[in-house]
Every structure is written in C-alpha cells, then in structure tokens.
Amino acid sequence: MKNNTSEKTPKTIDDPVEAALVKKVKRKTLILKGYRLTTAEILYRMPDYPSFLQTFVWQDLDLAPRFPILMKFLDFWENNLEGPLHSVRVGSTSILSPKETQYADVQLTLH
User: Fold this and answer.
1) Thinking of the domain 35-96, which architecture would CATH place it in?
2) From first to last of its 111 residues, what are the pLDDT tens digits of the chain?
3) Closest CA to 87 of 77, 79, 96
4) How many CB atoms lie within 10 A of CB 14?
5) How far is CA 42 from CA 3, 47, 59, in A?
6) Cα–Cα nearest to 28, from 72, 61, 67, 58
7) Which residues contact 68 (CB under 8 A, 6 or more apart)?
8) Predicted pLDDT of residue 21
9) How far is CA 22 from CA 30, 70, 80, in A?
10) In the sheet where 36-45 sits, what is the strand order?
11) Which of 27, 7, 23, 4 shows the shortest CA–CA distance to 15?
12) What gap in Å lies between CA 68 and CA 82, rounded to an integer?
C-alpha cells in the first residue's frame, strides 16, 4: 500500500496578491537562470480558408537557442489545433545581463 502523505502535490494559492508575488519571484528566478524574453510570430493557415494566413504572437521566457518552451507550445499546436503552421519567426533578448547585476557599496535605511 502506497503512502500518499509523502507525495508532493502542487499548492493552490487562492489569494490573487500572493499568487502574483509567487509568479513574480519565479519569473526573476528564471531570468537569473538564463531564460530570455522570447517572442514568436507564428503564421498559420486558416482551416476553412487554406489560402489565407493568420498571425499569432506568442511571448514567454525561454532558453535560447533551443527554445524548449516554444517547441512544447508548437508541438501542442500541431497536435491539438486545426490551423496548420506555415512559418515561425523567433526573436529573443536578454532581460538582465551579468554586468547589470552587482552588489551595492552602501545600504541606506529611511524611516
């Protein structure tokens, strides 16, 4: 018999302010781990009108140059959505570089 108390389950945060704070902390952690702001312009064919192209813009933090999060999204698209992909253009930039992070020489406290 398996003990379910040792299994970790994702914690649901009901307070929207706390949820936003957790999301912000996770975002900063990802940025410090090398994730970059990535934007993809996705052109796809309309299912009912295959001669027409529609644009979808996707943006998230991802790891260059392999872009695993974008690739996972595109796999989901191809397996679950009807509009076949035509082309994807990707742009990525660092939000925070090592030279922009440094220790402060002084710490001041205001009352």
Assistant:
1) Roll (3.10)
2) 455 554 555 566 777 777 777 788 888 888 888 899 999 999 999 999 999 999 999 999 999 999 999 999 999 999 999 999 999 999 998 776 656 556 666 666 676
3) 77
4) 6
5) 46, 15, 11
6) 61
7) 62
8) 77
9) 12, 22, 30
10) 53-62, 36-45, 85-93
11) 23
12) 22
Per domain, the residue ranges of the chain are 35-96
How many C-beta neighbours within 10 Å does residue 69 have?
Answer: 16
Give the pTM.
0.67
* Tokens read off for 81: 């959505």
Please count the residues of the chain: 111
- Residue 94 structure tokens: 């660092």
